[in-house]
Amino acid sequence: MLRVGDELITLIDPDAPASEAYRTLRTNILMRNFDRDMKVINIISTTAQEGKSTCVLNLAMVYAQLQKKVLVIDLDLRMPTIHKKLKLKNKKGISDIIGHQAEFEEVVLQPYENVDVITAGTKIPFASEFIQSNALKEFIEERKKEYDLILLDCPPVGLVTDGIVAASYCDGTILICASNRNDRKELLRVKDQLEQTQVNVIGIVMTMMPVQRKYYNSYGYRYSDTQKKTTQKKKKNSILSSITKKSDKKK
């Protein structure tokens, strides 16, 4: 299970259980390519501070480790965090490119090998309209020619609908859900939203899970063993699993 707070754990400690979890996530995504190429994926969460942006960056890193060229775009225009986590400047970004205030080459940054980043850029008053714009869709479509994977860091869908709108021009969506952060009613509401808009949810990542660290065999590989789940957690997991099952049926 992934743990928030580790930030770029895939770089800091590649042998950590969290790093292995990101590699497993990468493998699962690669194996979903039998129906369509998963080139554009948006990452959403229900509420803020569930580990969404951390997941975006670490997923980008493990793809880059396979020599895949990755582009990360911060579409959380209201509360952008990608630049903070990477200690980058946010003077110009995606809003400036689409608003014809800057060129792609001026804005794109490369904090790590094979990972390019476009920050949110200048704050704009009409974030929802921006996400829905044909100009943004065309920009992303054009970038698909240059990158193996494009990751969109979108706002929490429990607060605004930007992430659901963005899903319409993505190949797949990953939902981040923090343990003990959302109640059952909130998860059901998000589940209904995703089903009604026919979002292609390709997976759910649970974060902030309580774990016990153990060590496995003489090679020293570490793995995480989750503690016993309460009845409430089982209900939450059944809700989350039903989202992906219904999404798979629609294919």
Summarize the structure.
This protein has helices at residues 9-12, 17-30, 52-64, 82-85, 94-98, 104-107, 127-132, 134-143, 162-167, 184-196, 231-250; strands spanning 40-45, 70-74, 109-112, 115-118, 149-153, 172-178, 201-207, 211-216, 221-226. The chain has 251 residues and is of the alpha/beta class.
User: Which series of helices and strands comes N to C?
Assistant: HHEHEHHHEEHHEHEHEEEH
Which strand order does the major sheet show? 3-4-2-5-1-6-7
Shape: globular
Computed over alpha carbons, the radius of gyration is: 18 Å
Bin the helical content.
25-40%
Most strands sheet: 7 strands, mixed
Structural class: alpha/beta
Low-confidence stretches: 1-6, 213-231
End-to-end Cα distance: 27 Å
Total number of β-strand segments?
Answer: 9
Strand content: 15-25%
Number of helices: 11
Mean pLDDT: 83
Provide key terms for this protein:
9 strands; single chain; alpha/beta; globular; 39% helix; disordered N terminus; two-stranded antiparallel sheet; 20% strand; 251 residues; 7-stranded mixed beta sheet
Can you walk me through this structure?
This protein has 251 residues and is of the alpha/beta class. 39% of the residues lie in helices and 20% in strands. The protein contains eleven helices and nine strands. The strands form two sheets. The protein has a seven-stranded mixed sheet. The chain has a two-stranded antiparallel sheet with strand order 8-9. α2 packs across α3 and α10 (184-196) packs parallel to α11 (231-250). The longest helix is centred in the C-terminal third of the chain and has 20 residues, at 231-250. The chain is globular, with a radius of gyration of 18 Å. The two termini are 27 Å apart. The relative contact order is 0.18.
